[in-house]
Amino acid sequence: MNKKEFNEDRMKMLLAALGDSLVLVQDEDLVKVHIHTLTPGTVLNLVQEHGEFVTLKIDNMQEQHNEIIHNDYTLIAEGSRITQELSDFLKATGRDPSRYH
């Protein structure tokens, strides 16, 4: 099967439309991609048009998010003060840290 010619700028544009937190790094014969997407199959199909996978890792970010939220509340229940890092996390996830002091 013939593979399409790879163009880094075009691939970044196409992938950016499919997710966020995109990082794409190319060296002489490898391209590494990191992206947060709700459609990993679409990303895989697009990237595979240009070559074969050497290593592949897909994580369910919603599951990780739910685990972090659960741990978040556990930490809050056990501690009397919220650390700056936890406070920043709550703000980033749309919650008011002052509710948990």
Fraction in beta strands: 5-15%
The biggest beta sheet is recorded as: 2 strands, antiparallel
Could you say which overall geometry the principal axes of the C-alpha atoms support?
elongated
Total separate domains: 2
- Detail the poorly predicted runs: 74-82
Structural class: alpha+beta
How many helix segments? Answer: 4
General description of the model:
With 101 residues, this protein is of the alpha+beta class. The chain has two domains: 8-48, no CATH class; 61-100, no CATH class. The chain is 45% helix and 15% strand. The protein contains four helices and two strands. It has helices spanning 8-16, 40-48, 61-78, 84-92; strands spanning 19-26, 31-37. It has a two-stranded antiparallel ribbon with strand order 1-2. The longest helix is centred in the last third of the chain and has 18 residues, at 61-78. The protein starts with 7 loop residues before the first helix and ends in a 9-residue tail after the last helix. Mean pLDDT is 78; it is low at 74-82.
Which short descriptors sum up this protein?
2 strands, elongated, 101 residues, 2 domains, alpha+beta, two-stranded antiparallel sheet
In short:
The chain is of the alpha+beta class and 101 residues long. The protein has four helices and two strands.
Question: Helices, strands, pairings?
Answer:
Elements: H1 8-16, E1 19-26, E2 31-37, H2 40-48, H3 61-78, H4 84-92
Antiparallel strand pairs: 1-2
